[in-house]
């Protein structure tokens, strides 16, 4: 994408019928670190790569609990994401206050999408620079949605956003038909493998990823680092169904033992 | 020309009594389960006690519609607090929030007479007692509601701590054991039920301690 004379305002159409500012906002999502979501009939899993600006700083928070039955992972301008999470939390609280029942996810994503659309049609605003993977439960089961800065939203079986998300999407496309009947554990394993796909050779450790789960009978919560590390170790030692490169698989098995104690030292000093 | 008076009131009194007693490492909160209006009974099994946070409960008597609205409001505020601070509200924090919430409606008050009970951040029992517009105080024990005029003097007799002006300084917390406190509550309600027509049916007792929250019921006279 190159600069042109139609991209200054969000309220200016290009002759080809495009709103460049909105498209630039979607670029911002692609620059953020990866976030992945997958769902089965009964559970949804979110996983994301934590990027810290330096070893001294803490990680950006990318997964937010919105309500017991709804959670969200963001990619892009995390400040925008934080503000939208606060909006989502308020909507859930107000809905349950009035109706004494949980806000259906489908309703929430529409409200979010409408909110995003407003920013694409006001000259004094800019679009939100964040993509949201909204996961939640309602009476019909588990859902995963993607909300775009454009104001569009889509429901997915599995999806990935952010930088190098294409690698994760390729993996998910190969495997998504099995997800509906996956067990909770297999779903989490697939999420972690997808995260590893986006890492391009960097070792997968619990300190660089965050995993959250919501399911029937299980409120939305973020898994703690120890649990995540155990899950990683479990499938790396055994070797997964589709190892990316066999030699790398063996080398990882050797390093797995050394990696386990190192993982704690490698964890960010200011882990929130 | 006589002054015109309102032909309806936004308030009603649903009666009932509440008590809370703080111990060294526990807190007992109790209330009867009778809900009435005028000389009629609306329910013999209505709970006046609600859990606001992990270790913080509130018992309220007065106008139950206002009580319910107040409980919902505090629950929503607690959710927001948890999202922002990633932890539960402590009992003293909830105490202040309740006071502010009540005063917010200073000029159309919640007709709700509350006692807040739970554990403070050190794990010691704490009880806060309120009036309808948010004036509150941390105490070792308290009662509110229709039976409070009968209950409070008895609690004073059994539990009142020596004057704070005396030396050596003494704790505001009562030196009762948990079982003694529960027995005291049962005695106190049985007595109040005898003479207060709005108190009776069943007694709900909730005990908060380090292990968690325990609920107990006792039958009271149904007349």
Structure notes:
- The complex is a heterodimer of chains A (272) and B (223).
- Chain A has 272 residues and is an alpha+beta fold.
- Chain A is 40% helix and 22% strand.
- Chain A contains seven helices and ten strands.
- Chain A has a five-stranded antiparallel beta sheet.
- In chain A, a hairpin with a 5-residue loop joins β6 and β7.
- The two termini of chain A are 37 Å apart.
- The C terminus of chain A is likely disordered.
- Chain B is of the alpha+beta class.
- In chain B, the strands form three sheets. Chain B has a five-stranded antiparallel beta sheet with strand order 10-1-2-11-12, covered by helices on one side.
- In chain B, β8 and β9 form a beta hairpin.
- The mean pLDDT of chain B is 94.
- Chains A and B meet through α2 of A and α1 of B.
- Chain A: It is found in: Cytoplasm; Nucleus.
- Chain A: Belongs to the peptidase T1A family.
- Chain A: This is Proteasome subunit alpha type.
- Chain A: It comes from Trapa incisa.
- Chain A: The proteasome is a multicatalytic proteinase complex which is characterized by its ability to cleave peptides with Arg, Phe, Tyr, Leu, and Glu adjacent to the leaving group at neutral or slightly basic pH.
- Chain B: InterPro entries: Ntn_hydrolases_N (IPR029055), Proteasome_bsu_CS (IPR016050), Proteasome_sua/b (IPR001353), Proteasome_suB-type (IPR023333).
